[in-house]
Amino acid sequence: MHLSQRFLLRSLGTFTLLAATVAAPAEELFDFGRSFDSGRLITRGTTVAVANGSLEIKGTSATTNGTGVVFPLAEESQNLARFREVQADVENTGDQPLTFTFWALSGRGWGGASTYTPDRGPVSGRETLAPGQRSTLKIDLYARYPGPDVYTPATNPASIRGLEIVFVDGRSPASLRVRSIRATGEGPAAPSDVSRRVLVPEISRDAPAPGRRVYQQLPGRVNTSISHVLTLPREWQPGRKYPIIVEYTGNIFYHKFCYSTGYTNQGNMAYGLARGEGFICLNLPFISADGQQEEPNGWGDIDKAVDYCIEAVRLVCDQYGGDAHAVFFVGFSRGELAANYLALRNDRIASLWRAFVGTNPGRPWKPADGTGWNKVGLGWDERAARLQGRPWFAAPANLGANVHVDVQYLEDRPSTVATRRWMQEILSRRTGQ
């Protein structure tokens, strides 16, 4: 082969590589030009304005958990499966360091994928920018929990409902400039099979019906903003009895993979265990100190939450065939601690439970644990005594080290299958079947 031929082939190879690089898919998801309608966005504790081709985000007060901006995607733009990642060019325009998380969210029982920074080693998903610092944030749409029993990615790239920037506690109002948000990079040729994930129905404000998840208010709470989520099984019929799963969510917490709003409507663990069949699912709230709203962070007034739980379970038993002798408790993070702090608070509520999923609320409290999260350890052993031999079951989800998420029952991994089997055994023991 002549030298000129070898040079030509090398040149063609280089051209092919460059062409492939140029041809990599990219799509501007939010272009902040003059025609951009900032009314499309959902703000929480912030204001937004378009200026000079960028979106200016300003906090209205000192930053608190949950402050941020939601970027909803139009239905025709939600399938991002052909892309590998979402990128955002941002700049801290304030005079204080700014900490926040950036999310791609799917809904329907899917968690979220947050930013990753491979050059910094293990990261929490939280980004911190110094005053004046610019950065390009990246979300891997195919990010997975690192454990061995994980079958699907953390979010569904074919159904990204929206993106969200959530600010973490700060001393001063947030001030962030967003220059571009785009999808880019080649998605994998053979994406994960998402059919192994339980799809959770949307919550509506319709009347309860078989297979439907609905918001519901207790009769005595109509003058408050407090509600809960009721799900009747698909095969529900009046006059029949159904076991109940009661679920409590975590508090506000945004961390890598953990998108926790602290509100009842986020809870999906009970539905994942039931898969829409055989059980009535109740997602119940913690109650604020004034008794007028749901408490997303901390315990609120725990005694009010106890009263609400007892009343909600009674209503489900009276009106929808709930079996008062077959009530299971499940919770995530704050909700898991509530298995002791709330569910065994007094003899009235302790008598509700047939069994506990995911924790042992009767274990002795370790002095090395101190007072625990929000002083949960105070009075723990006294409450634990009220367990009185009721069964509990916990199987490790194997999602990976330091992964703290509430989706462990939404895949048919071994731990989920074992938990469902145990619940059926508990019901069989009671009925003698």
Characterise this structure.
It is a single chain. By secondary structure, this protein is of the alpha+beta class. The chain folds into 2 domains: 23-193, Galactose-binding lectin (Jelly Rolls, Sandwich); 203-431, 3-Layer(aba) Sandwich (Rossmann fold), CATH 3.40.50. The chain has 7 helices and 22 strands. The strands form 4 sheets. An 8-stranded mixed β-sheet has the order 13-14-15-19-16-20-21-22. Strands 1, 3, 4, 6, 10 and 12 form a 6-stranded antiparallel β-sheet that branches.
Set out the fold topology.
Blueprint: H1 3-23, E1 26-30, E2 42-44, E3 46-51, E4 54-59, E5 68-72, E6 83-92, E7 98-105, E8 112-114, E9 126-129, E10 134-140, E11 162-167, E12 175-186, E13 203-204, E14 213-216, E15 228-231, E16 242-248, E17 253-255, E18 258-260, H2 269-274, E19 280-283, H3 302-320, E20 322-331, H4 334-341, H5 347-350, E21 355-357, H6 380-384, E22 392-393, H7 414-431
Parallel strand pairs: 13-14, 16-19, 16-20, 20-21, 21-22
Antiparallel strand pairs: 1-12, 2-5, 3-4, 4-12, 5-11, 6-10, 6-12, 7-8, 7-9, 7-11, 14-15, 15-19, 17-18
